[in-house]
Amino acid sequence: MRDSGRLITFEGGDGAGKSTQSLLLVSRLESAGITVVTTREPGGTPVGEELRRLVKGAADPSPRTELLMFEAARAELVQRVMRPAIERGETVVADRYTDSSLAYQGYGRGLDLDEIRSINAYATGGLVPDLTVLLDVLPRTGAVRSTGRDGEGAGQRRFEDAGGGFHDRVKRGYLELAAKEPDRWIVLDGSMPSAQLAEKIWARVLTLLRHGNPAGGSPDRGRGRA
Q: Are 132 and 25 in contact (CB under 8 A)?
């Protein structure tokens, strides 16, 4: 396996199972002797956690403000945690990253996709994932799984209660993003049994670690668009 840093991101609608599968992947990577750093959005730094409190709180920001709050947390996370880890040769496993903004604030909220791409690139310094795992579930399935989740607050309920049309747009957005970059994405049916999903993800990650990103990604791939 290559001894170079990697960025693996997990994406999907609410209740898709990202957190479960990312933890399973981390366990397997660590068992293989790979040093792993995990992140979530928003959060992961003192500034990010403060912004998470605001995003998940009772305030109801406009879509543009919501986007910029996520991007500010992301910028701090990349600079303080993600990029240093990759430069040390470690593997970062991220529960959400730039594609979430395209799916939720772009397709879901209706903000301009090219503007979001530009802000993503600025916030991250152009740091693009080597692999993005999309767990695709029907919005109603995700809603059932999300019911009763603790600790998410009013901000999370804003997304959950946004209505079927919003979540349908998010789902369509993810699939369109994945179709445009098939070398970077792996799309999996999130309704499959957890163990089966974990095996499919592990097989794809092994390919990445052994042979690199077919699209040519590298730890210093710093100017691609996410």
A: no
Number of neighbouring beta carbons within 10 Å of residue 186: 19
Regions in the chain scoring below 70 on pLDDT: 1-3, 141-164, 213-226
CB atoms within 10 A of CB 196: 11
Query: What topology is assigned to 6-211 in CATH?
Result: Rossmann fold (3.40.50)
* pLDDT per position as a tens digit, 46-93: 999 999 999 988 889 999 999 999 999 999 999 999 999 999 999 999
Q: Which two tokens stand for residue 190?
A: 């999130």
Contacts of 96 (CB under 8 A, 6+ apart): 9, 10, 11, 18, 40, 41
Q: For residue 166, which of 142, 150, 200 has the smallest C-alpha distance?
A: 142
Q: What are the tokens at 145?
A: 């799984």
Sheet holding 91-95, edge to edge: 36-40, 91-95, 6-12, 131-136, 185-189
> What's the DSSP call for residue 49?
H
d(CA 21, CA 95): 10
Which regions of the chain does DSSP assign to beta strands (E)? 6-12, 36-40, 91-95, 131-136, 185-189
Compute φ and ψ for 27, nearest 5 degrees.
Answer: -60, -40
pTM score: 0.87
